[in-house]
Amino acid sequence: MLAKTLETSIGWTSIQYGYITGAFQAAYAIGLLGGGYLMDRLGTRKGYSIAVSMWSLAAIAHAVATSAFSFGVARSFLGLGEAANFPACIKTVAEWFPKKERALAAGIFNAGTNVGAVVAPLTVPWLALTFGWQMAFIATGALGFVWLIFWLLFYHKPEAHPRISSAELAHIQSDPADPEGTVSWISLLPRRETWAFILGKFFTDPVWWFYLFWLPKYLQEKFGLGLMQIVWPTLIVYNAASIGSVGGGWLSSRLIKGGLSINLARKTVMLISALCMLPVLYAPFSTNLWLVVALISLATAAHQGWSANLFTLASDMFPRRAVGSVVGIGATGGALGGVLIQITTGYVVQRTHSYLPLFIFAGIAYVAALAIIHWLSPKLEPMALS
Fold this sequence. Notes:
Helix content is 79%, strand content 0%. It is mainly α.
């Protein structure tokens, strides 16, 4: 959202911006490994509290950046803290929901990430224009600490929650009980199912990061939009993503309740999502702003519908005690793919002044990823880990 403003205020090139976003992704990749481990060892309540505190401090630190390098350092620490989000959320879903309800639950929490993307266009430009761009980062970091208070006050595991009934607890724990103990990464890495999740994230997460970091800049450059003019296009895109996230989770849960196997339900929705990505291939050829917005909106909605089901695969295939680690390892693969796409995008945009190669990748990545997932785990069978 502020990429063009900061490009002018601090001063950096498209290549440097690619490295800044790449630094965020690299730290995010490292943080995912640590975040998954942290959630499985400390539990989500304590582990997530540590991560949110780091994220909030790093957000505030952006306000004192005076160069591309110092801004990149702040982004790196932000990535470390933010990385724990998805391992924590997926593990929380696995703790609080039986398998038949997890995709919808994952879709709802995943839509929460888009709520931030919707709120940002409404508040960030106003904060930047009224109080300076630094205030946008200070306010965001402060809100993280406010959220942390409510997390510590209200979150507990189901069996320790003071207001849960015995009937609710029985419903949550209706799946067969998992064995006790911890699972080592060494035992997870040789598994084909682990690699199905890793490669699914590696090929498709970079597309979301491309839209998140480069879409406002792309629309501003192609259509000459100002900071306030970018509000409505980005609002439409990220609202569509929220709908896709909830819709994708709802549809697979609905198919399972209708009698389809978990394997068929998840992969049916993922195939629909993958096919909905293909129309975005036309976006770089269109000169109509709202057609481009519509195509990218469909793509982001499809990505989030895909993502809600991809995240749920980890809890479908692995016991609860391994979910945080599997999500952390897999999401690290997605973040490493994000590093490559961010740096590549910077060079492609500066050297060719074209986004066409990025949209080609964005259009075809999901079909390829689904083929790989199906090859590695044709039945999505639950793993028995010692």
